Amino acid sequence: MYGFEALTFNIHGGYLEAIVRGHRASLLTASDYNNLCQCETLDDIKMHLSATEYGPYLQNEPSPLHTTTIVEKCTLKLVDEYKSMLCQATEPLSTFLEYITYGHMIDNVVLIVTGTLHERDVQELLEKCHPLGMFDSIATLAVAQNMRELYRLVLVDTPLALYFSECISSEDLDDMNIEIMRNTLYKAYLEDFYRFCQKLGGATAEIMSDLLSFEADRRVVNITINSIGTELTRDDRRKLYSNFGLLYPYGHEELAICEDIDQVRAAMEKYPPYQSIFSKLSYGESQMLDKAFYDEEVKRLCLTFEQQFHYAVFFAYMRLREQEIRNLMWISECVAQNQKSRVHDSVVFIF
Amino acid sequence: MAEGAGGAAANGGSDEKVLDFLDSVDSYLTTMESLAPILRQGWFDLASARHSMGVFRVSSASLDLKDHSASTYLQMVGHESDDSFVGQPSFSLCKWASADNKSCCSEEEIPDSQLRHRGTSRLSENQEQNSNGDDSLKTVDDLVKKERAKTLSVFGTLVSPKLRTAQLSFETALEVLVEAANIRSSMLSAYSQVQKQMEDTREGEIGPIP
User: Fold this and answer.
1) Which residue, among A126, A145, A147, A127, has the nearest Cα to A137 in the 3D structure?
2) At how many degrees (to 10) do helices B134-152 and B161-206 cross?
3) Which pTM was predicted?
């Protein structure tokens, strides 16, 4: 019952909540980002990061560094932290933590299937997969010819099995079907995660429903903008939208028929939380939309730490680390391409 | 008098050839200078796309290794003999050739009108055909859009607009490169003409060897 978590939460979740709050304190600050933005080379970035918790992961990397190396090693740190929390978690926190990785699992499945379609080596594809989304039989995905086989041979024994019922068909896997499969799986995952959080109740349900609704709404906007000018029909586009969120259902009806960014803007500005996001953009422009959404997401994630005795802090921490890794990737690319004047186009300060 | 008039005409002719050569050098340098910022913008847009879509989604692992025909061809006209250029080689880009229909969706010969040239510019036949009729333009546009989307589909069907912008930047860079190749070809041709002119003038001054 909401309000009584203070009595019982710490029995099973107190230790890990303290751990995750400790990890949160090690996120890079604005002064760290200012130093990084002034670096001239990737080796300078490595030198600055050696004073942070990323130091041990980068210290043995030989020069010349590559931006993908920095991203890989920083991601390894996140994976290590996640695994150490997962192995010490009890139910239902352990299930909650596993839910956080299902999105990466979906991306990995799509990567393997697409790569196999393009006759890539399976070993090479496995190296490119996100480590948080790995599962035992992932390499067997290369054998499947259609979605039915994909499900029957591999995914039936994974947590993604539940989400497959909406997209099982005997159609051959091609680029469009794979994209629809990706988005359908992600839609089903988000809805399932939402229902799970509602079942947990209390502060977790309240805070996670806000965060997941925002995620669902952002997906709706991205699907709409990315599908403008493509062969995806309005009906198919509508089917990819999640059935919850602030935009559901009336916003979805309007966005499904949008043909350009200005129509998307007109539909979104009816909702006050998104009006502030679109007010930062000029008409006809969508380049800065990603940054505006990331800014808003980071604000909401930081607010979760203001309250205690709920699981949303774990979700928020994982997302904030992923944002930090995105920031490091962006800064590295700007430094490598000698475009330091553009570095603030996409860096989102966390604290 | 006749000799003086003939000499003046010859000087005027050689001056024109030198001016042609200098014009072509200037155009070539200008074109090459314009290439670097376009490529920079393309790489930056690609980094933006990776930031937006995720580094695991936009990576070399997504590229297609199956046998497939190129979507863009470079055609060369004109050849070199042992002694000199029989014809000045020129290059044209055949962009977005469809696998079903081997003809190009958008064939361009980079016009010489880009040069500060004393001659008249000329347009390719395909460009003249495309400018006639809105329907044919629309069809070409649709085909080009389709081919562009097909090339990007290795990263997924629903890609970020930033990836499409990167594609356009690299497409523009390719056009500039072909333009630079044509200008270089004109420059080398103008240079060989100036050299020939100078040798002829020297022989004329020395006179035939007894």
Assistant:
1) A126
2) 110
3) 0.86
- Over residues A29-46, the pLDDT tens digits come to 999 999 999 999 999 999
| Interface confidence (ipTM) of the complex | 0.90
d(CA B180, CA B173): 10
Cβ B137 vs Cβ B127: under 8 Å: no
- Cβ A118–B63 below 8 Å, yes or no? yes
DSSP state for residue A62 in the 8-state scheme? P
**CA of B48: how far to CAs of A282, A334, A341, B52, in Å?**
19, 10, 14, 6
CA distance B115 to B137: 27
* Other Cβ atoms closer than 10 A to A127: 10
Q: Is A80 on the interface with B (CB under 8 A)?
A: no
d(CA A297, CA A288): 14
Does the beta carbon of A236 lie under 8 angstroms from any beta carbon of chain B?
A: no
Cis peptide before A92 (omega within 30 of 0): yes
Q: Quick count: other Cβ atoms within 10 Å of Cβ A41?
A: 13
CA distance B120 to chain A (A): 39
User: Per residue in A97-145, pLDDT tens?
Assistant: 999 999 999 999 999 988 888 888 888 899 999 999 999 888 888 888 7
**Which residues of chain B does A175 touch, with a Cβ-Cβ cutoff of 8 Å?**
153-154, 156-157
CA distance A221 to chain B (A): 11
